């Protein structure tokens, strides 16, 4: 699989098969992903992978606290404006349409949201953390590292779903991975083999055409 195929094939998967993923494969992906660029070569990422009993315990802890904790940060700005508001709204509508949940069925939508806490059934849960004193440029570096992880996973026949949902459980995550107090969890990620029979996995998020967000100047 070349890079273009990995980029085109990467989608956020929200239903996984329970088939285990070998620890050696996960380690290889995480190690290779560290070729991601970072300003000043700070390499700000700190990464934890959970499977088996540690993952099961984390899922149980989240299920026992469905309302979450004080969030580590706000995932979206308040009063989201255009065109971001429409993009987010449309993506939500497209996602719930794949599993037949209408907008007015709030309980069903909340149950689907809560599936984040079970990593959508994936056998591996990853957490991407960084030192609290680092700033937005290092958050961007961490995002590039995560993108490498997702593309390398595709090359291994695996799929993923990045989850900022975990900002809602900072204390639970910190306990699960023994995170130092001076670090914070930025995002989680489900990793495993997609369930091809799950309707929700037919979703491919829309992308605006290039001319809406890009310009080329000075080219012939």
Describe this structure in words.
The protein has 220 residues and is an alpha+beta fold. The chain has one domain: NADH Oxidase. The protein has eight helices and four strands; from the N terminus they run H-H-E-H-H-H-E-H-E-H-E-H. Strands 1-2-4-3 form a four-stranded antiparallel sheet, with helices on both faces. Helix 1 packs across helix 6 (136-155) and helix 2 (23-33) crosses helix 6. It is globular.
Short summary:
The chain has 220 residues and is α+β, with helices and mostly antiparallel strands. It has helices at residues 3-9, 23-33, 52-63, 84-98, 106-114, 136-155, 170-177, 210-213, and strands at residues 46-50, 124-131, 159-163, 183-192. The protein has one domain (3-76, 118-198): NADH Oxidase, CATH 3.40.109.
Judging from the principal axes of the Cα atoms, what is the shape? globular
Q: What is the number of helices?
A: 8
Strand content: 5-15%
Structural class: alpha+beta
Q: CATH homologous superfamily - what is it?
A: NADH Oxidase
Q: How can the largest sheet be summarized?
A: 4 strands, antiparallel
Give the N-to-C terminal Cα separation. Answer: 32 Å
CATH topology: NADH Oxidase
Widest sheet, order of strands = 1-2-4-3
Identify the CATH architecture: 3-Layer(aba) Sandwich
> Could you estimate the helical fraction of the residues in percent?
25-40%
Number of domains: 1
Helix/strand order? HHEHHHEHEHEH
Radius of gyration: 18 Å
Low-pLDDT sequence parts: none
CATH class equals Alpha Beta
């Amino acid at each position: 699989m070349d890079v273009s195929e990995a980029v085109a094939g990467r989608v956020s998967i929200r239903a996984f098969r329970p088939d285990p993923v070998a620890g050696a494969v996960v380690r290889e992906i995480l190690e290779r992903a560290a070729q991601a660029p970072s300003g000043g070569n700070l390499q700000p990422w700190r990464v934890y992978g959970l499977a088996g009993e540690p993952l099961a315990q984390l899922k149980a802890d989240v299920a026992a606290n469905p309302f979450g904790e004080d969030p580590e940060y706000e995932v979206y700005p308040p009063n989201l404006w255009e065109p971001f508001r429409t993009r987010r709204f449309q993506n939500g509508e497209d996602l719930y349409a794949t599993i037949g949940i209408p907008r007015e069925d709030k309980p069903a939508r909340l149950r689907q949201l809560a599936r984040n806490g079970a990593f959508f059934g994936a056998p591996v849960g990853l957490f991407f953390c960084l030192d609290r004193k680092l700033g937005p440029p290092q958050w961007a570096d961490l995002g590039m590292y995560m993108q490498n992880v997702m593309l390398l996973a595709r090359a291994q026949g695996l799929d993923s779903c990045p989850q900022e949902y975990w900002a809602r459980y900072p204390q639970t995550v910190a306990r699960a991975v023994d995170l130092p107090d001076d670090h914070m969890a930025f995002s989680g990620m489900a990793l495993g083999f997609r369930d091809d029979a799950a309707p929700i996995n037919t979703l491919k998020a829309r992308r605006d055409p290039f001319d809406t967000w890009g310009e080329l100047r000075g080219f012939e």
